[in-house]
Design a protein that fits this description.
Layout lengths: L1 H67 L1 H7 L7 H23 L5 H15 L2 H10 L5 H13 L23
Helix pairs in contact: 1-2, 1-3, 2-3, 3-5
Length: 179
């Protein structure tokens, strides 16, 4: 029996060597692919974190700006009678910020829970009367995909004809803080 194995190995040594080489090569390739996937996952997480940091940083700067200037805070509160020039400039800054967010969303930079949160914020902001007025005036100057995105938000969140004002949540999915 031992002689048969030795004879077979002596006869097929080259095929055996090729098989071992192929298996070894496949293991090495699989390890490299696994390492490459892990590296890409790390890069995606890093890019996502950096992008979210940019979004949140600009949002924070815009809110701080409003808190520092009563005229801008009136715009943020959707108050009637706000200074028209200040309103236009301030809303334009927000619209530009949301255009950036849309770009990130379009390229799937964020995870689903972050997407939902950002979309709720955009939806809530786009429900302000002054922002809707600003959008009707300047929305046409934005890329078509952003126009479709915002118009979809506006259409999806139109109040029903017989909407009741005593609801505890808005159409963007936010709950009233008093509940």
């Amino acid at each position: 029996m031992t002689g048969n194995i030795e004879t077979w190995v002596a006869t097929n040594w080259f095929s055996l060597l090729q098989t071992v080489s192929i298996v070894t090569g496949l293991v090495v390739i699989a390890k490299q692919q696994r390492d490459g996937i892990r590296q890409r996952e790390k890069e995606i997480i890093k890019r996502e974190a950096e992008s979210l940091d940019k979004v949140l940083d600009v949002n924070q700067q815009l809110v701080i700006l409003a808190l520092s200037h009563p005229q801008l805070f009136a715009v943020l509160r959707d108050a009637p009678g706000a200074d028209a020039d200040m309103e236009q400039c301030y809303l334009q800054l927000w619209l530009n910020q949301y255009s950036r967010v849309h770009l990130y969303l379009k390229h799937k930079i964020f995870r689903d829970e972050q997407v939902e949160n950002l979309e709720r914020d955009i939806c809530r902001f786009m429900q302000m009367h002054n922002m809707q007025r600003h959008w009707r005036r300047f929305g046409q100057y934005y890329p078509e995909s952003f126009q479709k995105y915002i118009n979809g938000i506006l259409k999806k969140n139109e109040p029903p004809v017989a909407a009741h004002l005593d609801t505890d949540s808005d159409s963007c999915g936010h709950q009233d803080a008093s509940t």
